[in-house]
Amino acid sequence: MRYFLKSVATSKLTLPTVCVVAVVVMIFQTLPIDNYVGEEAGLWSLLPLQLIADRWVQFAIRLGLLALSIYLLAELNTSFVLLRVRSRMISSLFTVLITASVFLHNLQPSSLIAPIFISACFSLFSTYQLSNAVQPTFIFYLLVSLSSLIFPKLLFMIPVFWMCQIHLRSFSFRVLWASIVGLSTPYWFLFFYSLVQMDGLQLFLFPFQQLADLKMPDYSVLNLPQWLMLAFTFLVFLIGLFNFISTSYLDKTRIRITYDIVIIIDIAAFVFIALQPQCFNSVFILSIITTAILVGRYFAQNDSRGANILFIILAVFITLITLFNLFQETILFFLK
Question: Could you give the number of structural domains in the chain?
Fold first, then answer.
Protein backbone atom coordinates (compact mmCIF):
# COMPACT_ATOMS: atom_id res chain seq x y z
CA MET A 1 0.00 0.00 0.00
CA ARG A 2 2.85 2.37 0.81
CA TYR A 3 3.94 2.69 -2.82
CA PHE A 4 0.44 2.79 -4.32
CA LEU A 5 0.30 6.60 -4.42
CA LYS A 6 3.81 6.84 -5.89
CA SER A 7 2.97 4.37 -8.64
CA VAL A 8 -0.21 6.30 -9.50
CA ALA A 9 1.51 9.71 -9.40
CA THR A 10 4.44 8.69 -11.62
CA SER A 11 2.68 6.29 -13.98
CA LYS A 12 2.30 7.33 -17.61
CA LEU A 13 -1.07 5.57 -17.68
CA THR A 14 -2.73 7.65 -14.95
CA LEU A 15 -3.68 10.63 -17.10
CA PRO A 16 -4.89 8.58 -20.12
CA THR A 17 -6.93 6.39 -17.77
CA VAL A 18 -8.75 9.28 -16.07
CA CYS A 19 -9.30 10.91 -19.47
CA VAL A 20 -10.98 7.75 -20.77
CA VAL A 21 -13.15 7.63 -17.63
CA ALA A 22 -14.07 11.30 -18.12
CA VAL A 23 -15.14 10.71 -21.72
CA VAL A 24 -17.20 7.65 -20.75
CA VAL A 25 -18.94 9.55 -17.95
CA MET A 26 -19.69 12.53 -20.19
CA ILE A 27 -21.08 10.26 -22.92
CA PHE A 28 -23.11 8.28 -20.40
CA GLN A 29 -24.67 11.48 -19.12
CA THR A 30 -27.08 11.77 -22.03
CA LEU A 31 -28.98 14.70 -20.49
CA PRO A 32 -26.40 17.19 -19.15
CA ILE A 33 -27.54 19.22 -16.17
CA ASP A 34 -27.91 22.86 -17.16
CA ASN A 35 -27.16 25.22 -14.28
CA TYR A 36 -26.88 28.51 -16.11
CA VAL A 37 -27.54 31.55 -13.98
CA GLY A 38 -28.20 35.04 -15.32
CA GLU A 39 -25.03 36.69 -14.09
CA GLU A 40 -22.64 34.29 -15.81
CA ALA A 41 -23.96 34.53 -19.37
CA GLY A 42 -22.22 37.66 -20.66
CA LEU A 43 -21.96 37.63 -24.45
CA TRP A 44 -21.98 33.83 -24.46
CA SER A 45 -25.36 33.68 -26.19
CA LEU A 46 -23.86 35.54 -29.17
CA LEU A 47 -20.94 33.15 -29.69
CA PRO A 48 -21.11 30.84 -32.75
CA LEU A 49 -20.54 27.83 -30.46
CA GLN A 50 -23.88 28.42 -28.82
CA LEU A 51 -25.69 28.44 -32.16
CA ILE A 52 -24.84 24.79 -32.79
CA ALA A 53 -27.99 22.86 -31.92
CA ASP A 54 -26.79 19.29 -32.34
CA ARG A 55 -25.92 17.81 -28.94
CA TRP A 56 -23.08 15.63 -30.22
CA VAL A 57 -21.42 18.55 -32.00
CA GLN A 58 -21.60 20.53 -28.76
CA PHE A 59 -20.22 17.49 -26.94
CA ALA A 60 -17.27 17.32 -29.36
CA ILE A 61 -16.53 21.03 -28.85
CA ARG A 62 -16.81 20.63 -25.06
CA LEU A 63 -14.49 17.62 -25.19
CA GLY A 64 -11.99 19.53 -27.31
CA LEU A 65 -11.94 22.45 -24.86
CA LEU A 66 -11.47 20.02 -21.95
CA ALA A 67 -8.61 18.26 -23.76
CA LEU A 68 -7.00 21.64 -24.42
CA SER A 69 -7.28 22.56 -20.73
CA ILE A 70 -5.70 19.26 -19.67
CA TYR A 71 -2.83 19.72 -22.14
CA LEU A 72 -2.23 23.33 -21.06
CA LEU A 73 -2.10 22.29 -17.39
CA ALA A 74 0.48 19.64 -18.24
CA GLU A 75 2.54 22.21 -20.14
CA LEU A 76 2.19 24.70 -17.28
CA ASN A 77 3.60 22.10 -14.93
CA THR A 78 6.50 21.38 -17.27
CA SER A 79 7.30 25.01 -18.11
CA PHE A 80 7.43 26.23 -14.51
CA VAL A 81 8.58 22.99 -12.85
CA LEU A 82 5.67 23.00 -10.42
CA LEU A 83 6.53 19.48 -9.27
CA ARG A 84 9.92 18.15 -8.19
CA VAL A 85 9.13 14.77 -9.76
CA ARG A 86 8.00 13.75 -13.21
CA SER A 87 4.24 13.44 -12.83
CA ARG A 88 0.94 14.29 -14.51
CA MET A 89 -0.89 14.38 -11.18
CA ILE A 90 -2.02 18.01 -11.62
CA SER A 91 -3.72 17.33 -14.96
CA SER A 92 -5.14 14.05 -13.64
CA LEU A 93 -6.69 15.69 -10.58
CA PHE A 94 -8.14 18.45 -12.73
CA THR A 95 -9.75 15.82 -14.97
CA VAL A 96 -11.12 13.90 -11.97
CA LEU A 97 -12.69 17.04 -10.48
CA ILE A 98 -14.25 17.98 -13.83
CA THR A 99 -15.59 14.44 -14.23
CA ALA A 100 -17.28 14.56 -10.82
CA SER A 101 -18.70 18.03 -11.53
CA VAL A 102 -21.52 16.87 -13.79
CA PHE A 103 -22.93 20.41 -13.89
CA LEU A 104 -19.82 21.44 -15.88
CA HIS A 105 -20.17 18.75 -18.54
CA ASN A 106 -22.38 20.63 -20.97
CA LEU A 107 -21.05 23.42 -23.18
CA GLN A 108 -21.16 26.65 -21.16
CA PRO A 109 -19.02 29.74 -20.35
CA SER A 110 -16.81 27.81 -17.92
CA SER A 111 -15.85 25.45 -20.78
CA LEU A 112 -14.10 28.34 -22.52
CA ILE A 113 -12.91 30.14 -19.39
CA ALA A 114 -10.78 27.15 -18.31
CA PRO A 115 -8.32 27.02 -21.26
CA ILE A 116 -8.17 30.82 -21.47
CA PHE A 117 -7.36 31.20 -17.78
CA ILE A 118 -4.74 28.42 -17.83
CA SER A 119 -3.15 30.08 -20.88
CA ALA A 120 -3.13 33.37 -18.98
CA CYS A 121 -1.27 31.72 -16.09
CA PHE A 122 1.75 31.21 -18.38
CA SER A 123 2.07 34.99 -18.70
CA LEU A 124 1.32 35.67 -15.04
CA PHE A 125 3.87 33.19 -13.68
CA SER A 126 6.52 34.39 -16.14
CA THR A 127 6.47 37.91 -14.67
CA TYR A 128 8.38 36.78 -11.59
CA GLN A 129 11.01 39.43 -10.76
CA LEU A 130 10.91 40.82 -14.30
CA SER A 131 12.16 44.41 -14.35
CA ASN A 132 10.14 45.01 -17.53
CA ALA A 133 7.06 42.80 -17.37
CA VAL A 134 4.95 44.91 -19.71
CA GLN A 135 4.50 42.36 -22.51
CA PRO A 136 3.48 39.30 -20.42
CA THR A 137 1.31 41.57 -18.25
CA PHE A 138 -0.52 42.88 -21.31
CA ILE A 139 -1.11 39.33 -22.59
CA PHE A 140 -2.35 38.13 -19.20
CA TYR A 141 -4.90 40.91 -18.77
CA LEU A 142 -5.92 40.68 -22.42
CA LEU A 143 -6.86 37.02 -21.86
CA VAL A 144 -8.63 37.88 -18.60
CA SER A 145 -10.56 40.59 -20.44
CA LEU A 146 -11.58 38.15 -23.17
CA SER A 147 -12.89 35.82 -20.47
CA SER A 148 -14.81 38.69 -18.91
CA LEU A 149 -16.77 39.13 -22.13
CA ILE A 150 -18.52 35.85 -21.35
CA PHE A 151 -18.31 36.27 -17.57
CA PRO A 152 -18.24 40.02 -16.79
CA LYS A 153 -17.92 39.62 -13.01
CA LEU A 154 -14.46 38.12 -13.54
CA LEU A 155 -13.31 41.76 -13.61
CA PHE A 156 -13.80 41.81 -9.83
CA MET A 157 -10.74 39.55 -9.64
CA ILE A 158 -8.47 42.25 -11.11
CA PRO A 159 -7.35 43.61 -7.69
CA VAL A 160 -6.46 40.04 -6.73
CA PHE A 161 -4.32 39.69 -9.85
CA TRP A 162 -2.59 43.01 -9.10
CA MET A 163 -1.88 41.68 -5.62
CA CYS A 164 -0.38 38.58 -7.21
CA GLN A 165 1.96 40.66 -9.35
CA ILE A 166 3.05 42.65 -6.31
CA HIS A 167 3.94 39.33 -4.68
CA LEU A 168 5.73 38.29 -7.88
CA ARG A 169 7.84 41.47 -7.50
CA SER A 170 6.98 42.65 -10.99
CA PHE A 171 4.45 45.40 -10.28
CA SER A 172 5.21 48.96 -11.35
CA PHE A 173 3.44 51.95 -12.91
CA ARG A 174 4.25 50.65 -16.41
CA VAL A 175 2.89 47.22 -15.48
CA LEU A 176 -0.26 48.84 -14.10
CA TRP A 177 -0.71 50.76 -17.34
CA ALA A 178 -0.09 47.61 -19.38
CA SER A 179 -2.78 45.83 -17.39
CA ILE A 180 -5.27 48.63 -18.04
CA VAL A 181 -4.50 48.61 -21.76
CA GLY A 182 -4.82 44.81 -21.89
CA LEU A 183 -8.15 44.91 -20.08
CA SER A 184 -9.58 47.66 -22.26
CA THR A 185 -8.46 46.32 -25.66
CA PRO A 186 -11.30 43.77 -26.21
CA TYR A 187 -13.83 46.35 -25.03
CA TRP A 188 -12.56 48.90 -27.54
CA PHE A 189 -13.20 46.38 -30.31
CA LEU A 190 -16.61 45.64 -28.82
CA PHE A 191 -17.33 49.38 -28.67
CA PHE A 192 -16.52 49.96 -32.36
CA TYR A 193 -18.43 46.81 -33.39
CA SER A 194 -21.47 48.00 -31.43
CA LEU A 195 -21.07 51.45 -32.98
CA VAL A 196 -21.06 49.99 -36.50
CA GLN A 197 -24.13 47.89 -35.69
CA MET A 198 -25.92 51.10 -34.66
CA ASP A 199 -27.61 49.39 -31.73
CA GLY A 200 -27.31 52.35 -29.40
CA LEU A 201 -24.20 50.76 -27.88
CA GLN A 202 -26.44 48.12 -26.25
CA LEU A 203 -24.00 45.34 -27.09
CA PHE A 204 -21.09 47.30 -25.62
CA LEU A 205 -22.99 48.20 -22.44
CA PHE A 206 -24.38 44.71 -21.85
CA PRO A 207 -21.30 43.28 -20.01
CA PHE A 208 -21.09 46.40 -17.82
CA GLN A 209 -24.78 46.09 -16.95
CA GLN A 210 -24.18 42.53 -15.77
CA LEU A 211 -21.04 43.63 -13.92
CA ALA A 212 -23.02 46.25 -12.02
CA ASP A 213 -25.90 43.86 -11.30
CA LEU A 214 -24.84 42.82 -7.81
CA LYS A 215 -27.37 40.90 -5.73
CA MET A 216 -27.46 39.52 -2.24
CA PRO A 217 -26.06 35.95 -2.02
CA ASP A 218 -28.76 33.46 -3.00
CA TYR A 219 -27.59 29.98 -2.01
CA SER A 220 -30.90 28.44 -3.09
CA VAL A 221 -29.65 28.49 -6.70
CA LEU A 222 -27.07 25.82 -5.85
CA ASN A 223 -28.12 22.20 -6.16
CA LEU A 224 -26.83 19.20 -4.23
CA PRO A 225 -24.09 18.17 -6.75
CA GLN A 226 -22.69 21.70 -6.62
CA TRP A 227 -22.66 21.72 -2.82
CA LEU A 228 -20.96 18.32 -2.72
CA MET A 229 -18.24 19.35 -5.16
CA LEU A 230 -17.69 22.67 -3.41
CA ALA A 231 -17.26 20.89 -0.06
CA PHE A 232 -14.92 18.26 -1.51
CA THR A 233 -12.82 20.80 -3.43
CA PHE A 234 -12.52 23.02 -0.36
CA LEU A 235 -11.48 20.01 1.73
CA VAL A 236 -8.69 18.96 -0.63
CA PHE A 237 -7.66 22.61 -0.93
CA LEU A 238 -7.14 22.70 2.84
CA ILE A 239 -5.12 19.48 2.65
CA GLY A 240 -2.90 20.94 -0.06
CA LEU A 241 -2.59 24.25 1.79
CA PHE A 242 -1.48 22.70 5.09
CA ASN A 243 0.99 20.48 3.27
CA PHE A 244 2.43 23.45 1.38
CA ILE A 245 2.83 25.47 4.58
CA SER A 246 4.73 22.62 6.24
CA THR A 247 6.93 21.60 3.30
CA SER A 248 7.38 24.74 1.19
CA TYR A 249 10.93 25.17 2.50
CA LEU A 250 11.93 22.27 0.23
CA ASP A 251 11.06 24.29 -2.89
CA LYS A 252 13.02 27.05 -4.55
CA THR A 253 11.91 30.64 -3.94
CA ARG A 254 10.34 31.00 -7.39
CA ILE A 255 8.28 27.84 -6.94
CA ARG A 256 7.13 28.91 -3.49
CA ILE A 257 5.98 32.28 -4.79
CA THR A 258 4.21 30.61 -7.73
CA TYR A 259 2.27 28.42 -5.32
CA ASP A 260 1.52 31.49 -3.20
CA ILE A 261 -0.15 32.97 -6.27
CA VAL A 262 -2.14 29.78 -6.81
CA ILE A 263 -3.32 29.87 -3.18
CA ILE A 264 -4.29 33.56 -3.37
CA ILE A 265 -6.40 32.99 -6.49
CA ASP A 266 -7.96 29.87 -4.99
CA ILE A 267 -8.96 31.66 -1.78
CA ALA A 268 -10.33 34.58 -3.82
CA ALA A 269 -12.42 32.13 -5.88
CA PHE A 270 -13.93 30.56 -2.76
CA VAL A 271 -14.73 34.03 -1.35
CA PHE A 272 -16.24 34.99 -4.72
CA ILE A 273 -18.50 31.93 -4.61
CA ALA A 274 -19.57 32.80 -1.06
CA LEU A 275 -20.48 36.36 -2.07
CA GLN A 276 -22.02 35.59 -5.46
CA PRO A 277 -23.18 31.95 -5.57
CA GLN A 278 -25.29 32.89 -8.59
CA CYS A 279 -22.04 32.80 -10.59
CA PHE A 280 -21.04 29.38 -9.26
CA ASN A 281 -20.05 27.51 -12.44
CA SER A 282 -17.86 30.24 -13.94
CA VAL A 283 -16.01 30.87 -10.67
CA PHE A 284 -15.80 27.26 -9.53
CA ILE A 285 -13.79 26.33 -12.62
CA LEU A 286 -11.04 28.70 -11.38
CA SER A 287 -11.09 26.94 -8.03
CA ILE A 288 -10.83 23.53 -9.70
CA ILE A 289 -7.75 24.64 -11.67
CA THR A 290 -5.90 26.14 -8.73
CA THR A 291 -6.89 23.37 -6.30
CA ALA A 292 -5.67 20.72 -8.75
CA ILE A 293 -2.29 22.48 -8.93
CA LEU A 294 -1.99 22.77 -5.15
CA VAL A 295 -3.17 19.25 -4.25
CA GLY A 296 -1.25 17.74 -7.16
CA ARG A 297 1.91 18.97 -5.45
CA TYR A 298 0.99 17.09 -2.27
CA PHE A 299 0.13 13.74 -3.85
CA ALA A 300 2.92 13.80 -6.44
CA GLN A 301 5.70 14.53 -3.94
CA ASN A 302 4.52 12.65 -0.86
CA ASP A 303 4.66 8.85 -0.65
CA SER A 304 4.24 8.46 3.11
CA ARG A 305 1.86 5.89 4.55
CA GLY A 306 -0.50 8.63 5.71
CA ALA A 307 -0.59 10.21 2.24
CA ASN A 308 -1.33 6.81 0.69
CA ILE A 309 -4.25 6.20 3.05
CA LEU A 310 -5.59 9.72 2.54
CA PHE A 311 -5.30 9.35 -1.23
CA ILE A 312 -7.32 6.11 -1.18
CA ILE A 313 -9.99 7.64 1.08
CA LEU A 314 -10.34 10.71 -1.14
CA ALA A 315 -10.42 8.51 -4.26
CA VAL A 316 -13.32 6.55 -2.75
CA PHE A 317 -15.12 9.77 -1.79
CA ILE A 318 -14.79 11.37 -5.22
CA THR A 319 -15.95 8.13 -6.87
CA LEU A 320 -19.05 8.05 -4.65
CA ILE A 321 -19.73 11.74 -5.31
CA THR A 322 -19.42 11.17 -9.06
CA LEU A 323 -21.83 8.22 -8.95
CA PHE A 324 -24.28 10.16 -6.79
CA ASN A 325 -24.16 13.19 -9.09
CA LEU A 326 -24.79 10.96 -12.12
CA PHE A 327 -27.63 8.96 -10.56
CA GLN A 328 -28.95 11.58 -8.16
CA GLU A 329 -32.61 11.26 -9.13
CA THR A 330 -32.57 7.46 -8.98
CA ILE A 331 -30.76 7.36 -5.63
CA LEU A 332 -33.04 9.94 -4.04
CA PHE A 333 -36.09 8.10 -5.39
CA PHE A 334 -35.09 4.85 -3.65
CA LEU A 335 -34.20 6.72 -0.45
CA LYS A 336 -37.69 8.17 -0.16
Answer: 1
